[in-house]
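Query structure, 226 tokens:
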């Protein structure tokens, strides 16, 4: 596991919302996570019976399936490449030697039956929840990106928090009452917002979520003008 503090592992994500003036704003947000290994899968047509081992996944590794493929056999060596979820080759190496591929440290070890060109494995990189216990989350929404005044604010802080903190689950959720949403003018094209996390122990503040809040009069108007 990383020695970084939980707040140092947070990577900002875009999330857009649809809200109305006549309903409470109760919305869960995606897991606040750091990349972790989600398992490996061998190709159905593999000839070789060697094993793939992932020893570590670093913060910043891309989420999704990374594909390890045998690309050539020459001079007594079996060559491989690793392709990230966007189809970009991140490293080239050889079977039997560790390689580092854009945050993933792995080893493809030979087995009793040698690998053949085209043999492949997939490595899943998934978000592991960051324990956000004790962090304070604040939302600020403005009429426009450059506006100096706030259109809407919410927080996990105070006696009546309007953002719920899920602690070790690595999630937060909006809990803004409709009395507050009713005072917010309709703006189907969206209010730009940002949610930050602050660690009271260190004073560190980082962005967590950003995007637009599409606000309509009634639920039937959701999606109009967005």
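Result returned for the query:
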């Amino acid at each position: 596991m990383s020695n970084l503090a939980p707040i140092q592992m947070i990577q900002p994500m875009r999330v857009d919302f649809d809200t109305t003036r006549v309903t409470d704003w109760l919305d869960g947000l995606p897991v606040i996570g750091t990349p972790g290994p989600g398992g490996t899968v061998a190709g159905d047509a593999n000839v070789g019976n060697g094993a793939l081992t992932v020893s570590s996944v670093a913060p910043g590794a891309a989420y999704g399936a990374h594909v390890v493929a045998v690309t050539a056999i020459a001079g007594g060596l079996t060559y491989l490449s690793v392709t990230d979820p966007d189809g970009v080759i991140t490293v080239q190496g050889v079977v039997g030697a560790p390689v580092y591929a854009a945050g993933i440290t792995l080893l493809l070890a030979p087995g009793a039956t040698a690998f053949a060109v085209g043999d492949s494995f997939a490595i899943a990189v998934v978000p592991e929840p960051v324990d956000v216990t004790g962090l304070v989350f604040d939302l600020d929404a403005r009429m426009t990106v450059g506006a100096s005044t706030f259109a809407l604010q919410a927080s996990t802080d105070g006696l009546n928090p309007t953002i719920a903190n899920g602690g070790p689950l690595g999630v937060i959720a909006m809990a803004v009452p409709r009395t507050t949403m009713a005072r917010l003018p309709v703006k189907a094209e969206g209010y730009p917002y940002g949610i930050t996390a602050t660690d009271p122990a260190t004073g560190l503040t980082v962005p967590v979520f950003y995007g637009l809040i599409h606000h309509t009069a009634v639920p039937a108007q959701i999606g109009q003008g967005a």
